[in-house]
């Protein structure tokens, strides 16, 4: 069985669909990309492709902007969240290695 990227993280959605799902304009979506809040990939033809995770993130960003939060503050929050998530993944991986080595399970 091969390991695949979760469907929510596959970059397959066009900007037009993202616009319809989020209610944001193309310009707003591109602006959030410029501010390093989302990271679409480019197709061979140069069009942007987004994931469901990107759509969810855009909706969170839009809510925060509406509440008066600045984009640099949002970016800082996202970086901190990413660091916390990475640390948790490392802890889980290490615990799995310990469990495999010693045949123990942490409850």
TrEMBL record:
The keyword DNA-binding applies. Transmembrane segments: none annotated. InterPro entries: DNA-bd_dom_put_sf, MerR-type_HTH_dom, MerR_fam. Residues 12-80 form the HTH merR-type domain. It comes from the Bacteria. Keywords: DNA-binding, Repressor, Transcription, Transcription regulation. GO terms for molecular function: DNA binding; DNA-binding transcription factor activity. The keyword Nucleotide-binding does not apply. This is MerR family DNA-binding transcriptional regulator. It comes from Fictibacillus aquaticus. The lineage of its organism: Bacteria, Bacillati, Bacillota, Bacilli, Bacillales.
